[in-house]
C-alpha cells in the first residue's frame, strides 16, 4: 500500500480539486512475474527447438532470425511487464477508481463509482489476483480485458483492495 499522503503527491496531476485518496497501491511485481512465467517455459522450448533446427542444418538464417526473435520476445516480456508495474498506481478516491501509468506509455483510466458494477469480482491465484469492478468498457483501454471488464491487476492483497473500494462506494 502507498501512504495516502505520498499517493497525493504521486497523483496530484490526476486528481480533481478537493478529491481525497482513500487507498493506493502498486501491482505486485512477484504476482506479475508469476502470472507471466508460462512465457518463459514456452520461450525456452521454442528457442531450443529453433536453434536446434538451425545448428542441425535444417533451417536457414531467413527462418532462424524471425523465429528466434519471437522466442526472445517471449523471454523478455515478463521482465518488461514486471518493470512496468513500478510505474503503475491503482488508487481509490472518494469519487472514483484510478489507474495511472507513468512509464514508457503513460495513461490514466478513471472510473466513477456510478459507472462500476454492483458486485465486485475477485479472481485469485495463489497469493495475488485481480479485482474486476466495471464492465462494458472499451477493450482498447490497457486495463480492460477482452470481455470489456476493467480491473486492478496483479494485486498482492486483492481482498484489502476490494474492502476499500466497497467502503468508498458506500460512503458516497
The total number of structural domains is 2
Q: How can the largest sheet be summarized?
A: 4 strands, antiparallel
CATH class of the largest domain: Mainly Beta
Q: Classify the beta-strand content into a percent band.
A: 15-25%
Unreliable residue stretches: none
Helix-residue proportion: 40-55%
- The sequence of SSEs as H and E is HEHHHEEEEEEH
What structural keywords apply?
single chain; 172 residues; alpha+beta; PH-domain like; 2 domains; four-stranded antiparallel sheet; three-stranded antiparallel sheet; 7 strands; 42% helix
Write a concise synopsis of the structure shown.
This protein is α+β, with helices and mostly antiparallel strands and 172 residues long. Helix content is 42%, strand content 24%.
Describe this structure in words.
The protein is α+β, with helices and mostly antiparallel strands and 172 residues long. It has two domains: 4-26 and 90-171, Pleckstrin-homology domain (PH domain)/Phosphotyrosine-binding domain (PTB) (PH-domain like, Roll), CATH 2.30.29; 33-84, no CATH class. The chain contains five helices and seven strands. It has helices at 4-10, 29-36, 38-55, 61-85, 158-171, and strands at 21-25, 88-93, 96-101, 107-112, 121-125, 128-134, 150-155. Strands 1-2-3-4 form a four-stranded antiparallel β-sheet, with helices on both faces. Strand 3 and strand 4 (107-112) form a beta hairpin. Helix 3 runs antiparallel to helix 4. The relative contact order is 0.17. The mean pLDDT is 91.
Amino acid at each position: 500500500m502507498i501512504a495516502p499522503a505520498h499517493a497525493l503527491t504521486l497523483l496530484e496531476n490526476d486528481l480533481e480539486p478537493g478529491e481525497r485518496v482513500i487507498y493506493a497501491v502498486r501491482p505486485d511485481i512477484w504476482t506479475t512475474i508469476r502470472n507471466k512465467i508460462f512465457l518463459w517455459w514456452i520461450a525456452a522450448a521454442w528457442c531450443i527447438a529453433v536453434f536446434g533446427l538451425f545448428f542441425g542444418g535444417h533451417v536457414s538464417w531467413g527462418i532462424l532470425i524471425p523465429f528466434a526473435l519471437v522466442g526472445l520476445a517471449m523471454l523478455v516480456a515478463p521482465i518488461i511487464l514486471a518493470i512496468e508495474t513500478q510505474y503503475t498506481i491503482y488508487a481509490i478516491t472518494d469519487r472514483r477508481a484510478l489507474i495511472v501509468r507513468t512509464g514508457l506509455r503513460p495513461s490514466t483510466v478513471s472510473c466513477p463509482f456510478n459507472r462500476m458494477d454492483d458486485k465486485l469480482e475477485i479472481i485469485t491465484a495463489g497469493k495475488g489476483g485481480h479485482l474486476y469492478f466495471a464492465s462494458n468498457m472499451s477493450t482498447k483501454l490497457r486495463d480492460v480485458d477482452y470481455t470489456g471488464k476493467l480491473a486492478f491487476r496483479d494485486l498482492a492483497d486483492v481482498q484489502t483492495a476490494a474492502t476499500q473500494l466497497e467502503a468508498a462506494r458506500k460512503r458516497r
